Amino acid sequence: MEPINEIDKPEQDLGDEKTHVAAGERIKRLRSFRGLTCAELAKRIGCTRPYLSAVENGRYPVSTKILRKLSQALNVTHDFFLASEEPDLEDTEALTRDMLNRKMAERARESAVSMRRPSGSRMIPVISVTAAGRPLAAFDDFPTGSGYEYVDCPSDISDENAFALRIAGDSMEPVIPDGSTIIVAPNMMPREGKPVVVKLESGDVTCKNFQRRGDQVILTPYNHAHDVQIFSVRELQWIYPVMKVVVDLYH
């Protein structure tokens, strides 16, 4: 059986066993309704398939952290999983519209705030979650400059196409902790011995330290409990340098 990884550890319990079982059943029903396998959904939220299966079957407590990721992956609000009354799957479209309306309102507020920012300051999109562990299929098809939330871009990063990613996993700890945000500059050249984000031909995305040896790319974790990964340059779609790491102390 696959080991439970760092993202799988419950950060905050959401109630008694009855709550866990009900939430797990709703996760499973909505996953099936969306046409996803357990393995596909686990990959989207950055956890192991056995863990998600255990949550769906009420054998493992669901956490606020996992519910946030499930809400994003399945396009519903937390209310769907925790409502006292059993939700109708057809009503998930209404929940989705409600969530999108909230996001639009949040972005409008952020735009208003950004207009009051000092000259030269700007916001960049957080476009997805990427793995600091095994590769993770992470990127949604957001247009350039958009994402599901926004963060401040440091003033010393001039790349107009810079974007941010959330890190899931512990392979880059202690330098890039699980849950931190990285700022990526796709128009900058990666440097050997420095962290990069790599997208493989398979579509998987991972964050590691970069080295080049001929036509091979060597991806090395800071955490020695994880393996070094070696790929041919033909197996990669792109390599972008990680310019900054932002750590959320309340994560």
Helix and strand arrangement:
Blueprint: H1 17-33, H2 38-45, H3 49-56, H4 64-74, H5 78-82, H6 92-115, E1 122-131, E2 136-137, E3 149-153, E4 163-168, E5 181-184, E6 195-200, E7 204-213, E8 216-220, E9 229-232, E10 236-246
Parallel strand pairs: 1-4
Antiparallel strand pairs: 1-3, 2-7, 4-5, 5-10, 6-7, 6-10, 7-8, 8-9
Largest β sheet strand count, sense and barrel closure: 10 strands, mixed
**Fraction of residues in β-strands:** 25-35%
The tally of beta strands, per DSSP, is 10
Helix percentage range? 25-40%
Q: What's the CATH topology label of the largest domain?
A: Umud Fragment, subunit A
**Which H/E pattern describes the elements?**
HHHHHHEEEEEEEEEE
Account of the protein in words:
By secondary structure, the protein is an alpha+beta fold. It has two domains: 90 residues, 434 Repressor (Amino-terminal Domain), CATH 1.10.260.40; 128 residues, Umud Fragment, subunit A, CATH 2.10.109. Helices cover 29% and strands 25% of the residues. It contains six helices and ten strands, in the order ααααααββββββββββ. Strands 1, 2, 3, 4, 5, 6, 7, 8, 9 and 10 form a ten-stranded mixed sheet that branches. Strand 8 and strand 9 form a beta hairpin. Helix 1 packs across helix 3 and helix 2 packs across helix 3. It starts with 16 loop residues before the first helix and ends in a 5-residue tail after the last strand.
